[in-house]
Amino acid sequence: MAVDEPTAHDARPDPTGPGARRRRRRRGGGRAPGDPRNIGWLYVLPGLAFYVLFTLAPLLHTVYYSLFDWDGLTGKTWIGLSNYSEALRDEVLRDAFVHSAILIVYYAVFPVIIGLLLTAALTRTVIRGFRFFRTTLFLPQLIAGVVIAQAWTWIYATDGPLNRALELVGLGSLVRPWLGDFTWALPSIGAIGTWVTFGLCMVLFVAGVQKIPTSLYDAARVDGAGPVREFFAVTLPGLRDEILDAFVLTTINALRSFDIVYNTTAGGPGGETLVPSMYMYQNAFLYNRVGYAAAIATVLAITIFVLAGIVLRIGSRGERT
Amino acid sequence: MKSRLLGVFVLSAVVLLAIAVGASNAGKKASPITLTMWSYDNQDPGLQPVLQQLSKDFERSHPGVKINIVFKAFPDLVGTVPRALASGSGPDVTEGNQGYQTDAQLVKAKLIIPLTKYVKKYRWDRLYAPSTWGMFRWTPDGKSFGKGPVWGIAQTGQNVVAFYNKRKLREVGLNPNRMPRTFAGFDRLLAQLRAKLPDGEPVIEHGNNEGYGFIHLFGGIQGAYVNAQSVRNWIYHVPGSRYDTPGTIRALAKLQQWGKAGYFNDDYNALEYDASATEFAKGKGVFWIGGDWDSTIIKTGLGGANVGVMPVPPGPSGRWTSVGGLSGPWHISAKTKYPDLGAEWLNYVITSQRAKTQMFSQQQIPADRRTKAPSGDPYLAQVTKAFQLVANDDGLLLYTDWASPSMYTTLQNQFQLLLAGRQTPAGMAKAVQDDWEKFDKTLR
To answer: What is the ipTM of this complex?
Structure first.
């Protein structure tokens, strides 16, 4: 089986550490059975099998479906790339992507900034109960999206705590049904995203700071750097990898966001909070247009790949200079 | 190293085997017979306790039969039932939804069976008026709605009516026992109320969060301006039907005017339909215009004696209309092993006296038109009378969102835009008609 699999191994870096003798032998092609390098494949086999079965295969299947006019139940009709040309012309889908772009600001940019500020505060001073704060701020990550959506629906309700608080501080003029308001529904959903994500960013950054050598901080302090200078000269560059990771994770989250939207506004009012994943759901499960939904899913997946690629590329360029 | 390797193998094999065995066992619960039913009538108080009780009764009279009734939220059920039926491990009997989004699919994909045989056997034809049966009829290709064999049968009547808070009317000096009998009079009453009520208090408490609130509420206005049959024809895709008629556009303008005049609570888009009924039951607003299936919620809050029930009064034609029809259509799966038993259960929960008593106890109106409301419950009598007023005038408008798979979303968005002043009545009528025509082309 996989143990004797002869191809595809040679290009793989050897995880057990390079050895000159082994490398020579590999070039020769001969390999003793049970050679340690091949065992690695067996170890990844269960994971790989699941990955292929439950991620890769459905992904390819989706691309395949996107080439058909199909209601999900009865016969499929091959229509080539028609679904994609429709997607390019579809104004509803375009609006949905614009909404997603706005959500990226709330799901990715704000959390990273807040995460950095908190990290700067947490690392600079010793805070009593630090673990407690870290855990509490990270907690939203562990709660199911449906629960979060329900909780925020209450918070945003006309007679909910947010409006009550505004009234208390004399800002009664700002009281509004946040999720039902044409202007405020999307920012309100975005704010939920910020709340969910900034804890994750903070935990990533706080962990990252710990691997920055304290000697750098000492050096900065000896050179007379204040907290702001220190942050920009030492902390920020030291966290570059974590910031990139955070951006990739949160951007993907923003583009995939479905549960929060579905359970708060379902895309309303008047389509103001429709996002691509919601539109894909509507096409697949409500409009009986599985082929078109698959095309939307594919476009969304490509968008995510490209954006993640761009973020990572920006990162690697920084590394070289 | 080698033994560990072997261990991994053995472990994987055991796990896989266990999964395989588990899967095949799950499909083989042969005796006793289990029938799985799916329903979205999950309101409690409402139909959920009725169906649960009746299923228990049915089990008692049918030893060896187990009824496994599963309740789901409406969008969850209609979103999954076609694929569940197609998979073969879905329900034996299930609710679908009238219209092109769900039922047309189930018929076209041959996932459900026609009920012709059972209509004859149990004399179901006597249950509803002939025109009412249209909502269960499809040609076998799923293209023509309103004709062809019968594929479904429903348990209760559904009627969108105006509930009014009698105490509030009295407080502003109006007589709740002399309500207007014409739409023009109703419209004047609303304007009067707006002038008399304090600013923050809505005339009509409303919930449109899910998007169907205004689809329901608008029917009362539309029915005053256009003929009921023309609305049904449009839903059934009778050639030449139109939504962008002068009557409908004037009705849309009237709704927009109600919104501009501040008749509704300003959080209607954020508030769920049933939640708005609860708010009304707590004393918010003078009117709540919505489904009579929520009448228990309202009775519980305000007390039956303080609530009046009537359909939105008719226009110049004098014929009562309202959005409504019958509750969700029950279907029998084409893959069930026990279609006859499924039909017997349906017959029991829909036509038996026990079923009707149970339904009335939850303020639900049995769909069987021969049913008499129990005496001694004036509130229930009002709800029943409101339904029969409309049904006898052949005024049930059905639901406009049945007209195409995407019509629900289109109407949801357009009503929200219209009420926010971001869409004109004529613009909305055109957008809705465009959706209809786009889908109509696929039927020809």
So the answer is: 0.72
